[in-house]
């Protein structure tokens, strides 16, 4: 079996999760992660997780003084890798792309980068086959990934005429202390549309979609209220069956006490999910309302983990390790324990 050597550049919220997911794949090897500061997560990466740590050339001494073992420079990490997953803050990936190109390495970028950083914007359930053999792939943002999981599932089953959605965005990730709001709801942006619908169209260009977003003072998850017109009439039972049978989507029942994002996170904790991650798109079953060809539902997106499976699939797409979406989904979802939930 081909084993691909993967490097993670940017070991933050997304990078640490993708790194761990890579270590669980039979066809991938994690060769190292990068850090720019010798903080607690550098200690965890090296001493607890046993990862090789690569740092900027002018910071080696600083890390070593802090007692953190360094395997080499970020440039050396890139040279050793077959592919780089770039999970640096939005905009930095485009700067790093020059280095990846110079070293002749393919790379995966995240949703904080502009679409033109890559050859293709990507979401497994929508366009895995189109991404096969591409050198630069952008995994779209968490909200866009959440929207696309549901929309491509419905499109395949019924066809879609149009979509309108309101995105209620969490203000910051739990670890972030310098961001707000703490007591306000902020249109994001005030001038519509929000970037999410525009971003969906980077993956599904012919879809008529418009989104608006507001930021609210919470860190747990995002919530979307989605309205769509199907290409044909359907029954509520049909729609529920399609969502239930789709990979990476789970339906939950408010009647069971799962009434809010707080309840979902508590359930993930009770189930012993690592970091209380919920990489599945969560749809509230009771919210699914079907009236002929019109449908409405409410869904929740765990921003810190939803894009992790798609990053793993994007690696497989670059090296054609799986020819079909269903083949990569089978391995990724089994190794990451998706849908073993309720
Ligand atoms: N946090 C989230 O909810 C989601 C984030 N994304 C996207 O993923 C990307 C990364 O976001 P996060 O993981 O949240 O950011 P983060 O801030 O948690 O992590 C970024 C990491 O990159 C490191 N870094 C900064 N400059 C660097 C450099 N020059 N070289 C190497 N490493 C450097 C930082 O120290 C940090 O550890 C962004 O494009 C973001 O838009 C996508 C989906 C969800
Ligand atoms: O990709 C995300 O959101 P998005 O889908 O609204 O762009 C992540 O939640 C990161 O959002 P942030 O830019 O508020 O850190």
TrEMBL record:
Involved pathway(s)? Carbohydrate degradation; glycolysis; pyruvate from D-glyceraldehyde 3-phosphate: step 1/5
Q: Example GO biological process term?
A: lysine biosynthetic process via diaminopimelate
Q: Write the record's keywords in alphabetical order, separated by commas.
A: Cytoplasm, Glycolysis, NAD, NADP, Oxidoreductase
Active-site residue numbers = 142
TM region positions? none
Location within or outside the cell: Cytoplasm
- Record SUPFAM superfamilies: Glyceraldehyde-3-phosphate dehydrogenase-like, C-terminal domain, NAD(P)-binding Rossmann-fold domains
Kindly state the subunit structure of this protein. Answer: Homotetramer.
Name of this protein: Glyceraldehyde-3-phosphate dehydrogenase
What is the species of this protein? Pyrolobus fumarii (strain DSM 11204 / 1A)
């Amino acid at each position: 079996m081909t084993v691909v050597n993967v490097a993670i550049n940017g070991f933050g919220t997304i990078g640490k999760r993708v790194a761990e997911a890579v270590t669980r794949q039979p066809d991938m090897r994690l060769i190292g992660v990068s850090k720019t500061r010798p903080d607690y997560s550098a200690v965890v990466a090296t001493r607890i997780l046993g990862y090789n740590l690569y740092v900027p050339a002018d910071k080696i001494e600083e890390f070593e003084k802090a007692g953190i073992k360094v395997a080499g420079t970020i440039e050396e990490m890139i040279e050793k890798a077959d592919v780089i997953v770039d999970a640096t803050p939005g905009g930095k990936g485009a700067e790093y792309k020059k280095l990846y190109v110079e070293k002749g390495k393919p790379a995966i970028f995240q949703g904080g980068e502009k679409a033109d950083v890559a050859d293709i914007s990507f979401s497994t359930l929508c366009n895995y086959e189109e991404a096969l053999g591409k050198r630069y792939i952008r995994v779209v943002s968490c909200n866009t990934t959440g929207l696309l999981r549901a929309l491509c599932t419905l499109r395949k089953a019924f066809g879609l005429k149009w979509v309108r959605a309101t995105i209620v965005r969490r203000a910051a990730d739990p670890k972030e202390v310098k961001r707000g709001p703490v007591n306000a709801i902020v249109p994001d942006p005030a001038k519509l549309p929000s970037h999410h619908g525009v971003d969906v169209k980077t993956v599904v260009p012919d879809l008529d979609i418009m989104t608006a977003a507001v930021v609210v003072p919470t860190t747990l998850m995002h919530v979307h209220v989605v309205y769509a017109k199907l290409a044909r009439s359907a029954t509520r039972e049909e729609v529920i069956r399609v969502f239930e049978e789709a990979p990476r989507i789970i339906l939950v029942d408010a009647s069971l006490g799962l009434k809010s994002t707080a309840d979902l996170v508590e359930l993930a904790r009770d189930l012993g999910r690592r970091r209380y991650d919920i990489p599945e798109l969560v749809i509230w079953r009771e919210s699914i309302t079907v009236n002929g060809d019109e449908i409405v539902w409410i869904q929740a997106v765990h921003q810190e983990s939803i894009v992790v499976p798609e990053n793993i699939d994007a690696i497989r797409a670059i090296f054609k390790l799986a020819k079909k979406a269903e083949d990569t989904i089978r391995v990724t979802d089994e190794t990451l324990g998706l849908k073993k939930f309720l």
